[in-house]
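Readers of this paper often ask what the protein records in our data store actually look like. An entry from our holdings is shown next, in its original layout:
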Amino acid sequence: MTATDRFEAVLRGAGLRLTAPRLAVLQAIAGAADSVTAQELHYRMRSGGARTGLTTVYRTLSALADAGVLDRFESAGEQSFRLCGAEHHHHLVCVRCGVVEEVEGAEVEAWVERTAKAKRFRVTSHSADIYGRCRRCAR
């Protein structure tokens, strides 16, 4: 399966059509090691020869995040985005350098279940992102 086929399947699963801008943004963000802002991604895309405009990058990232294809983070008043794994997970987000680390959250899952049960609440979804300073920035 090619990357385009994989992205098309991801988009269809999210109820979105495969368009040239969406494909370009997905290809660019898939190559990013960490979360990226729209400006950072636009710069990388333009440096690689893409002719996608900044407004298109903003709109596409927002649409992909709204559809659950990308994860969105808020740090220092700026949004960044990351293409994460499909499995349910949580994040550690550094407020200084912006690095994002995916973490499994067995303890979070157990807490959510206990809390919901105690309050007779039916959970449909949840998220738990932990903001702080990574090991490198905490020094």
